[in-house]
Amino acid sequence: MFTGIVEAVGIVKHITPRGSGITFTVESAISSELKPDQSVSHNGVCLTVEEVAGNIHTVTAIEETLKKTNLGALKEKDIVNLERCMLMNGRLDGHIVQGHVDSTARCISITEKNGSHEYIFSFDKKFAPLVIEKGSACVNGISLTVFDVGEDTFKVAIIPYTYEHTNIRLVKEGDSVNIEFDVIGKYILRHQQLSEK
Hints:
The protein has 197 residues and is mainly β. The chain folds into two domains: 8-84, Elongation Factor Tu (Ef-tu), domain 3, CATH 2.40.30; 103-195, Elongation Factor Tu (Ef-tu), domain 3. The protein has helices at 63-68, 160-165, 183-195, and strands at 8-18, 21-28, 39-42, 45-53, 56-61, 79-84, 103-113, 116-122, 136-139, 142-147, 153-158, 176-181. Strands 1-2-5-4-3-6 form a six-stranded antiparallel β-barrel.
């Protein structure tokens, strides 16, 4: 379980095909504090730490994960957002995030707003019931409030701190990002669907 508050960014040092999956070697300021079998969010994707050596750790994304996320498009030297799982005795500063990415979305617009930035993302219409005005979405592992929600688009505003301390600043128009929709909304929608049968 995560909160969508990015702790650090990591640099992808090596990418190694592993059967139908990919193993990533990542260097970061928090890698030395990790341990094998620990869950860490990488661009919003919950992955299990396999090895730790100094300030470097390795994780593997399996085929199913690669199909639903943008991890398969990562290249060496790319920057990823990292977050360790939340502590039960801490504050929930973002929102409840599982690290189970639902889909990717495409950045279709970026506007600089005198220090802050507004991004518009387009997503698959089948997820429209899960996106509400002033609701939460996790974009590349960042907990964000969505607004100006359309049929298959939403907008987010990025404050300077988030812009400077995550990889959102590297997202360009046309780029793909990982999206996890609000888990509470998923349960409500499922209940409603079953009730209508």
